[in-house]
Give the backbone structure.
Amino acid sequence: MIFKRVGEGRPYPDHGLSDKGWADVPPRQVRLDQLVTTKDTLQLATLLDEDSTFFGDLFAHVVEWKGEYYLETGLHRALRAALQQRNVLHARVVAVQG
């Protein structure tokens, strides 16, 4: 199994972070098997593109809410890491209270 669970949508409240706000969050490693996805589809061309940074940020965005880690952006990066047999992803993680 790559992810803890494949989800649809964001069950957590709005975190209110802009792109600038995310950029201020330092990246850290997150295990792929701890992540719950918020999307269940991706663009295959994005996954296979070696130069893709998909909307600019080099790191995935993860929201920690109620003890779960939700992969908000970076699904293609996470799958690429799994295909390269890595079990961690560098991501910006923000905790949301709710």
In short: The chain is about 20% helix and 30% strand. The two ends are 29 Å apart (CA to CA). Residues 75-83 form the longest helix (9 residues).
